[in-house]
TrEMBL record:
<keyword id="KW-1133">Transmembrane helix</keyword>
<keyword id="KW-0472">Membrane</keyword>
<feature type="transmembrane region" description="Helical">
    <location>
        <begin position="347"/>
        <end position="366"/>
    </location>
</feature>
<dbReference type="GO" id="GO:0005886">
    <property type="term" value="C:plasma membrane"/>
</dbReference>
<feature type="transmembrane region" description="Helical">
    <location>
        <begin position="227"/>
        <end position="244"/>
    </location>
</feature>
<feature type="transmembrane region" description="Helical">
    <location>
        <begin position="124"/>
        <end position="145"/>
    </location>
</feature>
<feature type="transmembrane region" description="Helical">
    <location>
        <begin position="157"/>
        <end position="181"/>
    </location>
</feature>
<feature type="transmembrane region" description="Helical">
    <location>
        <begin position="442"/>
        <end position="461"/>
    </location>
</feature>
<feature type="transmembrane region" description="Helical">
    <location>
        <begin position="303"/>
        <end position="327"/>
    </location>
</feature>
<feature type="transmembrane region" description="Helical">
    <location>
        <begin position="90"/>
        <end position="112"/>
    </location>
</feature>
<keyword id="KW-1003">Cell membrane</keyword>
<dbReference type="Pfam" id="PF01943">
    <property type="entry name" value="Polysacc_synt"/>
</dbReference>
<dbReference type="InterPro" id="IPR002797">
    <property type="entry name" value="Polysacc_synth"/>
</dbReference>
<protein>
    <submittedName>
        <fullName>Oligosaccharide flippase family protein</fullName>
    </submittedName>
</protein>
<keyword id="KW-0812">Transmembrane</keyword>
<feature type="transmembrane region" description="Helical">
    <location>
        <begin position="264"/>
        <end position="282"/>
    </location>
</feature>
<dbReference type="InterPro" id="IPR050833">
    <property type="entry name" value="Poly_Biosynth_Transport"/>
</dbReference>
Amino acid sequence: MPNKRSVIRNTALNYVGQAYVLLIGILILPFYLGHLGAEVYGLIGFFTVLQAWLQLLDAGLSPSLVRAVAHQQGAGDGDSAGRLLRSFELMFLPMALTSCTLIYLLSPWIATHWLNARTLQPDVLINCIALMGVVIALRLYSTLYKSGIQGLEQHGWLNAANVLIATLRYFGGLVLVSQFSQDPEDFFKFQVAVGLIETLIFATRAWQQMPVARWSTGMDWHLVRPILPFAASMSFSAVLWIVLTQMDKALLSRLLPLDQYGYFSLIALITTGILMLTNPLVQTLLPRLTVLMAEGRRDDMHVLFLAANRFVCTFLFPLAAVIALHAQPLILGWTGDAEAANWSRSILSWYALGSAIMAASAFQFYLQYAYGQMRLHLWYSLVSAVITVPTLFLAIHYQGVYGAALAWFFLRAVSFAIWPMIVHQRLAPGIHGQWLRDILRISAVTAVGLFISEPVFRLIADQSRTSLFLALAASGFITVTLVAASYKPLALKIYVLFSKPST
C-alpha cells in the first residue's frame, strides 16, 4: 500500500529525480545564453516569471487535490479519487483557456510597452509571448495530474517521468539551438511540443490510477464541496506567495533592458534552485504528515516535522552561504561570461541568503498544512504582502536591482526572526525550543565552516572555470560536513524516523 512506504525511500527518489532536473537545467541553460544571446535568454526568464504569475489560475486546487487524495489513502477510501480527478479536470478547463487567450490578447502590449528589447523585433516578441500562453495552459493540466499522482505517493514513477521530460526539454532544446535554429520562435514552438507530451504522459498515468466508471462522468459536487474551503484558503495564500516571490522579478522585467534581465535570470535560476532543494522532501513529507494526523499520531508528526526541518537546513544554509560568499566566481565558472559575473556579484549574494531563509520559513506553512489550519498563514501572507509590495517599489525605484536584492534579504530575515515562534505557540508549543536550537546551531557552524574553508578556496581557485568549480565544491563540502557533524547521529536518526511505517 502507498501509505506503508518508507518516507526515506520516497525522499531519496525525489531528491534523485529533482536533483537531475535541477542540475540538467543549471548545466544546459548557460549554453542557451551562448547560442541565443542575452536578450533571448532574458525572454526565457520572462517566460519563467509569466508561468509563476499564471499559476494563480490554479486557484489552490492542485495542492488541495494532493491533500484530498492522500487523506483518502490514509482513511482507506480510494474509490472516489477518479471522480475527484474528473471534477478537477472540468474546473481547470476554463482556467487553461483563459490563460491562453489572455496572453495572446496581451502579447502586443507586452512586447511593445513592457519588455525593453534592443535587437529583437516586436513581431518576434509577440509570437513568442503567444506561444508562452499555450505552454502555460498545458502546464496547468500537467500540474493537476502530477498532484493526483503525488497524493497517491507514487514517487518512483513520478520522478522517472520528470527525468524523461526534463531530458527532452533541456537536451532537446540544446540540440535545437546549437544544430538547427537560433530563432526564438522555433525554441518556443519546441516548448509547446514538449508541454503537450508532458501533459499526455501524466494524464495517461493519472487516468490509469484514478479511473472513472464512464468517460461521461461529470462534476461530483459531493466530493468537491468539502475541499473548496481549504482550496480557497490555498488560493488566497498562493496569490500572496506569488506576490512575495515574483513581484521583484515582474518589476525588474519592466525596468531592465532585456539583455540585463537575461543576467538577472541567471540569479533567479540559482535562487529558484535553492528554494527547490526542499521540494523532494516536501513532496514526500506533506502526504505523510497528513496521514499521521488522520491516524491521530500527532507526536510522531511533530518529530518527523523537526527531523525534516533539521535535515533540510543542514544542507540549505551552508549551500546558500557558500554561494553568497563566492557569487562572482560561481557565475564566472558556470557561464564563462565575465560581464554576467561582474554584473551579478553583489546581487546574487543577497538573493541567495534570502532564498535560503524563505525555504526554511516554508516549514511553518507545512505544519499548518498538516493541521489543515490555514488562518495563521493567510494573515501572515497578507501582512507580508502589504509590507513587501511598497518596500520593493521604493527599493527598486531608488536603488534598482541592487535595492531589490537588499529588500529580498531583509524582509525574509525579519519575518524569520518573528513568525516561526508564533506558529509553534499556536499549533505545537513543545517544538519551538528544539527548532530554535537547531537553527542557531546550523547557522553558527555554517559561519565557522566558511571561515575554515576560505583558505582552501583561495588555494584551489585560479582563472580557470574548472578550478573555480573545484574550489566551490571543496568549500561547500567542508562547510556541510562540519554542520552535519555538529548533530550527533544525524543520518541514523533521519533513517529511523523516516523508515517508521504508518499503522
